[in-house]
Batch of 3 targets.
Target 1
Amino acid sequence: MSLRRDAARNWDQIVETGRRLVDEGTPLRLNEVARAAAVGVATVYRHFPTPEALLETIALPGLEALAARGEHALTEDDPGTAFTGLLLAGIDALLADPAIPPVFSAPDHVLPRTAEVVARLAGLNTLLLDRAQRAGAIRPGLTAADITRLICGIVYAASLEPDAAARPALTHRYLDLLLTGLRT
């Protein structure tokens, strides 16, 4: 279904405003989004019935890019390198886009597309971990859920660094330390 031109313009304006608010660390409240986007409250609710729907829409491009990175990792010859590459991409995405962590960690999703992409990411993580374990690159006994929690912990630890520019290097350093412990 294609939106009318004015509806599409409103949708874009709402998403851009939501993106700005998320990037600023401001909670998404749909009435405030409507005011900041200079559209009617009903218009916002017509496109996004809940703040979660808007947040998922904002996070979806980053989640899709991460899933594409995971699909590419499946084609890499070295299972350990492929797994590490996806972990690095995941850390970078979680750190770079404040919309991704709450959407990725949510137990349920309001948009079917978000649920599909998050499930695909979880499946890719499991496949890549299994491949790395079978190749002897990662110790057995770890689960994909273990890895997800450890990665979230790394991102959280780096987020405590007051200098935002230093956070990506910290996450890579912490991941390197974690992988040293995970290798066989």
Target 2
Amino acid sequence: MTKDIFDCIRQSHSIRNFKSEQIPDATLTRILEAGNMAPSAGNLQPWYFYVVQDVSVKEKIAAAAFDQEQINEAPTVIVIAADPARSNELYGERGAQLYCIQDTAAAAQNILLGAEGLGVAACWVGAFNETKVEEAIKAPPRLRAVAIICLGYSNEQPKEYKERLRLAEVAKFIH
């Protein structure tokens, strides 16, 4: 059973305490497919998803992420890496420096929404040493680690709705 997309957006929040229960492969595959369906410049899909369940590799990733414990706690960790060269082929330096990062962020958001829709908790980790994460997952030199997403089942109490800025504070209509 999946949720309405607007419910997913409204209800999603970062979970840092996970149960040890592993996500079924079929559910994990659907979450990854959501990421792979993200829009990308020129439909180049300049991302790679490293699905990490090995405890020793997660420990290295956690160390590279300034000892963020949710990385060790989550049964599955996805490192999303961008391939700047792929975007560079069509869009030059702007593709390598910007488009591949935007595209990879869109894939990360789709993964988060896919997880929420399937009842899987998640946490996007952005603070980490890129080089050490890339070494931990044995990524080829052309790839750049952009995001870490912790996935599992929540071991936290549900949170109240998060305060947001009013739309009038962040949007300007130009007619």
Target 3
Amino acid sequence: MLNIAASLRPVSPAFAHRNLPRLLLQARESLMARTRPSLREHGLSDQQWRVLRVLGEHGTLETGRVAREATILGPSLTGVLARMERDGLIRRERDPADQRRTVVEATPKGLKMVDRLSTSVEAHYQWLEQSLGKQKLAQLYALLDELIALEQA
């Protein structure tokens, strides 16, 4: 017979800390569970929304920066951008200053979608701020920024 209490104990005593990457992924999924239905109603994947949000915040960008800001690997970004261009959400062209580079910008249709979705996204952040408190949310942002900077150093 299986001893449930024994199965809940860590198998290896080598891990003194909780699994931070897994916790961060679980936090992301919890946050996206509220946003994802709105994205799907507008025919967007998570990745397409990240691209649109980045372009909505920063304007025209070189594709490498879009990949970094949206946290999408280059090969995946190529397919995402192709679908978004086909759907009239973004426009790609050669960088006039450097023909080897490609720049991306949101079309008016894409920017309209950002505006529409930003209402529900911001409402979720308002709820989060009310639930956690302004100070805790600011602290969470600061800690995440610090962790990202530390790991990128």
